[in-house]
Design goal:
Structural class: mainly beta
Strand order of the largest sheet: 4-3-6-7
Number of strands: 7
Largest sheet: 4 strands, antiparallel
Length: 111
């Protein structure tokens, strides 16, 4: 237990002067995720920047109701192709699970 007024030390410590790790290297932002073309007609490619320290694990697509309509394993690649299949035109939320445990989301429009 922790006594009142005493903060428990976290299991990690961020030291900005430590040259070995930077938060920017470890974690990607949604804007780092590239989806082209977007809007898509029949297919699109989801990719990470070449400087990424991780790879794609899985790609999920959710409709406007929040229902998952597509799941694609990405086989630890830095890019993966998605095919429209029988998905209706509209706006979807694309979620990418990365092998570093991170999840990134971006809108994807299907025309």
């Amino acid at each position: 237990g922790v006594s009142p007024g005493v903060m428990e030390r976290d299991f990690w410590e961020y030291r900005p002067d430590d040259p070995t790790t930077s938060v920017n290297e470890m974690f990607l932002q949604p804007e780092d995720l590239m989806i082209a073309p977007n809007p898509m007609v029949n297919e699109t490619v989801v990719s990470l920047p070449g400087t990424a320290q991780t790879t794609l694990k899985e790609i999920r697509l959710y409709n406007i109701k929040g229902q998952r309509v597509l799941t694609r394993k990405a086989d630890n690649a830095i890019s993966a192709q998605i095919f429209r299949g029988n998905l209706a035109a509209g706006t979807y939320q694309l979620q990418v699970l990365l092998n570093n445990g991170q999840a990134l989301s971006k809108p994807l429009v299907i025309r």
